[in-house]
């Protein structure tokens, strides 16, 4: 805990030797000393007269939060001219109205021309008000701010430089936020051709160069330059092919075309890039981002410091492989080529991958052993996750069998005609299946997921981006290598990409222009996080697997214990494992009930009592904290219901629409349950564990979906397809079908082509 005045605040461990900039965004969270440069377009209103108070307040809040974490924050701000212009305009209007009233004797104002205001005069009038505003805002967070005005001459005079440096260090030592601006009231014109003559020379002719100069002088870790554009684009923003550059490297200037300056301010993007590269050369990391966008300005600074993909990050270290954006584009191009192959060729790729899983068994298991050893040594994985991480010969054999099923069933998946309609004479319409596009599959601790999902993507002609957990890095690497080896037999190696860069999942979920569907495979927390982070990209999956088994009064004694044991104990970590056991009230204190309890005890299943079940017992197990709990282990909840109707209502209230089961010999009761339970999978006298793509005969699954649109339940090839419409005509125009036209709509259904019998 550090203290300044009487305000305590928590510090975070931040320290590093200055001299080399951060290589990756993920390292920015270690930045100790940070300069935030606020461009004129960020600070001023759209009319360029007055300040954007809401935006400024949000920036002050973020800076204050970082300051109270123990960081040393400095602000280089514009805005004095705009604030002064507002004040001077008000004074001129007031003065003119008084004179007009005196001379005319009328109180009514006529049109009054406002003279062009000189920028230096506006700066002189606005500096004090701007600083007073900053002080008032920072006071709300118990932080003191101090104003420093500088000119280019202050950096050329060695004594003044030392004085400035000493002042800033002393302010930072006292936990004060320095607010620096060029002294625009007296600033001379910039000196020509004096920029970038070496690390120690840069002309301060705008706040971009001032911020860069200050960052290097103060050995700053990070410089954040906020403007009115998202960052640096490869061509002027707004042009058709303009793409935001995520990471910019020295020497990349040749690939960039600069546009015009912002609506206000001295420096355009070219000036910002020059200043950023100069600061980078001096050992300071730089990010240029948008500080005006209403959806992100409230957290843009903190997002940058947390390492999120915001704006353009300047780095001296080029990655060895392609960026994730490039990988997504490669996957889309590869997917389109894949979709254009003959069905037999796609099947051949999957058969080849199945063969490689068994042929290269020893190499795969060796890589998996490394992952298991590292996970056990670090102790970061719970036992259920370790089980998911583990591969074995039998698992690989099952995988290969599943892949061959996919290959066999994929012959007519892409391009299949599902509807034909004759709109009019010689005008026929077809609806055909096509791939969705580019899939992003994010999975944890499940290396066997990689070949399964890859095979389904290949069969459906989709491009694929895979993001596996780092705990399975070695296994994923070799499995992806084998997948690309199989794809290579028909020249579509790039269709499946494994993301190995330091991309955060949240950043991947923002690539809405490159990714068409996200499929999470992992914990309920992972799925919830992805559903929350995905902006504009559909997410297919389920956040929880709260599966129920209801034991009816007419249940068979022989079936009950077998189905419950298999549902709960066969693989308790699975999302289709039993979590809540519903028992009809009439079965309490019967031999059947005793058999269920004895079996669960033998299997070492910890029992939690639901509220109604607990009320029937003198000494009950621990009462459940929530009836919406996914245990993922040898634990379950038991609750009592009065009827099948109450069981259905309980499932709808507390379930997750995943898989729910009834055990009964009464067909009428069973049909009521099957028809009324609104879940993706509803079973009668069968284990919840059958809810699986392989067991359904789909070969494999990309996941189990509990959503109600497009695909539901175990999702195989069919769930990875969408449709498009093909219309074949002969000089048809809509005007021919008007009231007085020569043609009439027929809308006749036509027979579908014969499907491949194999």
TrEMBL record:
InterPro entries to which the protein is assigned, alphabetical: AceGlu_kinase-like_sf, Ald_DH/histidinol_DH, Ald_DH_C, Ald_DH_N, Aldehyde_DH_dom, Asp/Glu/Uridylate_kinase, G-glutamylP_reductase_CS, G5K_ProBA
Record GO terms (molecular function): ATP binding; glutamate 5-kinase activity; glutamate-5-semialdehyde dehydrogenase activity
Chief site of localization: mitochondrion
Location of the Aldehyde dehydrogenase domain: 323-588
GO annotation terms (biological process): L-proline biosynthetic process
Positions of the Aspartate/glutamate/uridylate kinase domain: 32-290
Pathway: Amino-acid biosynthesis; L-proline biosynthesis; L-glutamate 5-semialdehyde from L-glutamate: step 2/2; Amino-acid biosynthesis; L-proline biosynthesis; L-glutamate 5-semialdehyde from L-glutamate: step 1/2
Domain of life: Eukaryota
Pfam families referenced in this protein's UniProt entry, alphabetically: AA_kinase (PF00696), Aldedh (PF00171)
Subcellular location: Mitochondrion matrix
Keywords: Amino-acid biosynthesis, ATP-binding, Kinase, Mitochondrion, Multifunctional enzyme, NADP, Nucleotide-binding, Oxidoreductase, Proline biosynthesis, Transferase
Entry-linked HAMAP family: ProA, ProB
Matching PANTHER family: DELTA-1-PYRROLINE-5-CARBOXYLATE SYNTHASE, GLUTAMATE SEMIALDEHYDE DEHYDROGENASE
Recorded family membership: In the N-terminal section; belongs to the glutamate 5-kinase family. In the C-terminal section; belongs to the gamma-glutamyl phosphate reductase family.
Role noted for this protein: Bifunctional enzyme that converts glutamate to glutamate 5-semialdehyde, an intermediate in the biosynthesis of proline, ornithine and arginine.
Name recorded for this polypeptide: Delta-1-pyrroline-5-carboxylate synthase
Annotated organism of origin: Erythrocercus mccallii
């Amino acid at each position: 805990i550090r203290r300044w005045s009487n305000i305590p605040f928590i510090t975070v461990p931040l320290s590093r030797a200055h001299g080399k900039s951060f290589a990756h965004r993920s390292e920015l969270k270690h930045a100790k000393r940070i300069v935030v440069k606020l461009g004129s377009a960020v600070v001023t209103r759209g009319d360029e007269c007055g300040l954007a108070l809401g935006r400024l307040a949000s920036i002050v809040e973020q800076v204050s939060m970082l300051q109270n974490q123990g960081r040393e924050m400095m602000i280089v701000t514009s805005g004095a001219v705009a604030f002064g212009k507002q004040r001077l305009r008000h004074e001129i209007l007031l003065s003119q109205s008084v004179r007009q009233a005196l001379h005319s004797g009328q109180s009514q104002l006529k049109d009054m021309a406002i003279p062009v205001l000189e920028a230096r005069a506006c700066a002189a009038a606005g500096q004090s008000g701007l600083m007073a505003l900053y002080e008032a805002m920072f006071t709300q967070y118990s932080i003191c701010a101090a104003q420093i005005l500088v000119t280019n001459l202050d950096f050329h005079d060695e004594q003044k430089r030392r004085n400035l440096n000493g002042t800033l260090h002393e302010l930072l030592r006292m936990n004060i936020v320095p607010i620096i601006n060029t002294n625009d009231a007296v600033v001379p014109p910039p000196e020509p051709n004096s920029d970038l003559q070496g690390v120690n020379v840069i002309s301060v002719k705008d706040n971009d160069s001032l911020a860069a100069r200050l960052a290097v002088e103060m050995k700053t870790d990070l410089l954040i330059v906020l403007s009115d554009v998202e960052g640096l684009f490869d061509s002027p923003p707004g042009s058709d092919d303009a793409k935001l550059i995520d990471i910019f490297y020295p020497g990349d200037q040749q690939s960039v075309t600069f546009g015009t300056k912002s609506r206000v301010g001295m420096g355009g993007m070219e000036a910002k890039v020059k200043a950023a590269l100069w600061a980078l050369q001096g050992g300071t990391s730089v990010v240029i981002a948008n500080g005006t966008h209403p959806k992100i300005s409230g957290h843009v600074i903190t997002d940058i410091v947390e390492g999120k993909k915001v704006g353009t990050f300047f780095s001296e270290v080029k990655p060895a492989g392609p960026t994730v954006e490039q990988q997504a584009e490669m996957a889309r191009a590869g997917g389109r080529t894949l979709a254009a192959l003959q069905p037999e060729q796609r099947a051949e790729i999957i058969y080849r991958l199945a063969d490689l899983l068994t042929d290269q068994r020893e190499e795969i298991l060796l890589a998996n052993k490394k992952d298991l050893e590292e996970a056990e040594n670090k102790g970061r994985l719970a036992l259920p996750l370790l089980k998911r991480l583990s591969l074995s010969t039998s698992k690989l054999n099952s995988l290969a069998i599943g892949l061959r099923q996919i290959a066999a069933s994929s012959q007519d998946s892409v391009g299949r005609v599902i509807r034909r309609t004759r709109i009019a004479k010689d005008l026929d319409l077809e609806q055909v299946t096509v791939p969705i596009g580019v899939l992003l599959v994010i999975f944890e601790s499940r290396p066997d997921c990689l070949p399964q999902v890859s095979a389904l993507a290949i069969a459906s002609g989709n491009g694929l981006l895979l993001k596996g957990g780092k705990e399975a890095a070695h296994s994923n690497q070799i499995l992806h290598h084998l997948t690309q080896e199989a794809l290579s037999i028909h020249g579509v190696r790039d269709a499946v990409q494994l993301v190995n860069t330091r991309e955060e999942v949240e950043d991947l979920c923002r690539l809405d222009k490159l990714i068409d569907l996200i499929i999470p495979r992992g914990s309920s927390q992972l799925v919830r996080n992805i559903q929350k982070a995905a902006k504009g990209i559909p997410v297919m999956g389920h956040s929880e697997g709260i599966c129920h088994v209801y034991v009816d009064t007419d249940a068979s004694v022989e079936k009950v214990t077998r189905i419950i044991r298999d549902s709960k104990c066969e693989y308790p970590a699975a999302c289709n494992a039993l979590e809540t056991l519903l028992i009809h009230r009439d079965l309490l204190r019967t031999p059947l009930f005793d058999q269920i309890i004895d079996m669960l005890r033998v299997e070492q299943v910890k029992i939690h009592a639901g509220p109604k079940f607990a009320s029937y017992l003198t000494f009950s197990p621990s009462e459940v904290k929530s009836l919406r709990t996914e245990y993922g282990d040898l634990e379950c909840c038991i609750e009592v219901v009065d009827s099948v109707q109450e069981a259905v209502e309980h499932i709808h209230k507390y379930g997750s629409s995943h898989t729910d089961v009834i055990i009964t010999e009464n067909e009428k009761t069973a049909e009521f349950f099957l028809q009324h339970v609104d879940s993706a999978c509803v079973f009668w006298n069968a284990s919840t564990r059958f809810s699986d793509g392989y067991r359904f005969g789909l070969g494999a699954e990309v996941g189990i979906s509990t959503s109600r649109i497009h695909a539901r339940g175990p999702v195989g090839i069919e769930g990875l397809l969408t449709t498009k419409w093909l219309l074949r005509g002969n000089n048809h125009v809509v005007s021919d079908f008007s009231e007085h036209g020569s043609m009439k709509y027929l809308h006749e259904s036509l027979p579908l082509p014969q499907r491949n019998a194999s």
